[in-house]
Each structure stands twice: as structure tokens, then as C-alpha cells.
Amino acid sequence: MRISDFDYILPPERIAQTPVEPRDSARMLVVHRATGALEHRVFRDIVEYLRPGDLLVANQSRVLPARLLGSKEGSGGRVELLLLAARADLGPDRWEALARPGKRIHAGQRLAFGDGALIAEIEGETASGERIVRLVPREGTVAEVVERVGATPLPPYIHEKLADPERYQTVYAREPGSAAAPTAGLHFTRELLERVEALGVGVAYVTLHIGLDTFRPVEKDDLSDHVMHSEWIEVNEETARRVNATRAAGGRIIAVGTTSTRTLEAVAALAAERGAPAGEVIIPYQGRTALFITPGYQFRAVDALITNFHLPRSTLLALVSAFAGRELILRAYAEAIAREYRFYSFGDATLLL
């Protein structure tokens, strides 16, 4: 398929610049895959579409304050690093990062942040142009210093300043490591999660640390030529047990967001490849995945999907089109634009049933 098959025109005023309050008051477009019917609801109404015995699976990754503004040691020239992913495979405190100005930052340079509280030593460059950096704190741990001197990296289409950085975190974010928020989960409040569990619906968590592909456009016209950047995922034994038990009992697995979907489908593929026993839809796993879901993909683990509205010509729009059908998704998006829904990270939600 061509990336141009996943295009649509979005008026700029439909791009949400700030989050709504409270979180669960966002609008929600319900898309029924079997019939093509569309319903216009509010996100807190999601409880009306859940059934006892279902299981919500959400990404508990927490956004790092990964945007570092500083200077080059020696010349004092201004620099910016955006930390994308920890690279423990290359050594302790090694990170993959986007650098600006990119052409002037090369191996051997040292960059200072927070008046020298954190030093970044440039050790190399990846094939796609990211820098490999070693982070050296003056005192304390890297995580502690980054938390203190870094800034929350908002997507480039958001131009308003965020008053409260926690508003770009889910209420259940626990594991620091993402360069962007798993935004479908931003609509949940703690009270709404309590209502969900009171219905007899379970809530389980996986981890996917969101990295480069959130910021990188698809540059190939043929989708089969696009190479996904790998991201760190973790599914623990408890979550794997609950997913498998839910499926065995006839309940639905409802993924909160495309990152949870990719995580579940990645470990489901591993379960199939490794010949897991019957009834083990997924297996516990900790490692990296570069799973790219496009139309034609056969979903193994996910039965329904909560997600936001995605950018045109993006891998995420390809994923939701794989789940619900390209024509239905584009029709739903056209309806959402006509009814003035809010799009992207701080925008409204869709429920794909």
C-alpha cells in the first residue's frame, strides 16, 4: 500500500493545543467495525461499552523531561538534545538522542546542561542520524538530574505552553522512559478507572517506551519500504496471565492506545513463533520490538481499541486502518472533522469496537 492511501486534510484549527478539563470530558467517536455505525459520545461514557470480564490493557510508560537545552563545552554554542531511548546494550547511561543543530554536533564533543549538572558526551551516530550520547551527572543519578534540568517534550504541532507538565502524563504513568505520552490514556481519571473496575472490568498494564517513530515521518511512498525504529517493551507474568485468562473466559482485550496494541501484538507473535501452549495468547517478554502493523495484519490479542485521532500519512493511521478498515476510518475522520472534534495528542478519542 502507498502512504498516500492514508491521507486526509485537517483544518489547522482542529489541532488541539491544550487538554480539556476534566480529562474524561473529551468527546469520543465510537466506531462499530461490524456495521460501520458511528456514535458521538463523551469519554466517560466508555463504561457503557464495557462488559464484566473484559480487560483494559494500558501503557504505564512515563514521559521523561527529555528535552535538554544547553551549550557546547568550550565554544558555548547553544544546543538541544531530545532523549529518545536508553541504550543499555551500548553501555551504562547511554542514550539515543536527536541533536540540534545536528550538523555541528559530532563524536568527541561534550555538551553541558543545567549549568554543568549534566554532561552529554557524544560517542557516535546511528545510520539514521541520531546521536549516541553518554550522560554524566555531576552528582546523583542520571534520572534524578534529567528530571531536574529537562523539559517535557511536546509534539511539534502543539504551540501553546503547557501549564502543568503532569497533564501530559497518564494518571497511571509509572515507568520513566518515553519521549512522548501514550495519549489515549490521557482521558482516564482515577475515578473513571474505579468505575471501570466496579463493573467487573479488569485493568492491566504493559510498558512501551515511545521513541523516534513518534517524531519521524514516513518518507517512503510504499509502506512496505518503511522501517520502524525499535522500542523497548515489557509484559510481565501477571499481565500475561490476566490477558490469557480473560481470553479463555470469553472476555475482550481492550487496548488503551496504539502502543498497548503494538506491545500485545508483538508478544502474541512471539507466543505463536515459540509454539506456546494452547490458551497462551501472549507470553511474558522484556526486550525491543519493531512491529509495523498495516492493513492485512491479523490481530491475535486485541479485540477493541481506544485511541486518539492520528496524523495523516502516519504509521499510527495505518495501524488503526488495519484494525477497523481504511475506508471506515477515513469516513469516521471525515465525520469527526465535520463535527469539529479536536485532533491529535490533546484531542478527542475514538473507541473502535
What name does CATH use for the topology of the largest domain? Answer: QueA-like
Continuous helix count: 6
What would you call the structural class?
alpha/beta
Order of helices and strands: EEEEEEEEEEHEHEEHEHEEHHE
Total strands: 17
Report the CATH superfamily of the largest domain: QueA-like
**In the CATH hierarchy, what is the class of the largest domain?**
Alpha Beta
Helix-strand blueprint:
Layout (H helix, E strand, L loop, with lengths): L26 E5 L6 E5 L12 E5 L1 E3 L3 E6 L5 E9 L7 E7 L9 E4 L4 E8 L5 E7 L4 H8 L25 E4 L11 H9 L3 E7 L22 E5 L1 H12 L4 E4 L1 H16 L11 E5 L14 E5 L6 H10 L1 H13 L10 E4 L1
Parallel strand pairs: 1-17, 3-12, 3-14, 4-11, 14-16
Antiparallel strand pairs: 1-2, 5-6, 5-8, 6-7, 7-10, 8-9, 9-10, 12-13, 13-15, 16-17
Helix pairs in contact: 5-6
In summary, what is this structure?
The protein is of the alpha/beta class. The protein contains six helices and 17 strands. The longest helix has 16 residues, at 258-273.
Salient structural properties:
Thrombin, subunit H, 353 residues, nine-stranded mixed sheet, 6 helices, QueA-like, alpha/beta, six-stranded antiparallel β-barrel, 26% strand
Would you write up a description of this structure?
- This protein is an alpha/beta fold.
- The protein has two domains: 251 residues, QueA-like (3-Layer(aba) Sandwich); 83 residues, Beta Barrel (Thrombin, subunit H).
- It is built from six helices and 17 strands.
- The strands form three sheets. Strands 2-1-17-16-14-3-12-13-15 form a nine-stranded mixed beta sheet. Strands 5-6-7-10-9-8 form a six-stranded antiparallel barrel. It has a two-stranded parallel ribbon with strand order 4-11.
- Strand 6 and strand 7 form a beta hairpin.
- It starts with 26 loop residues before the first strand and ends with a strand.
- The mean pLDDT is 93.
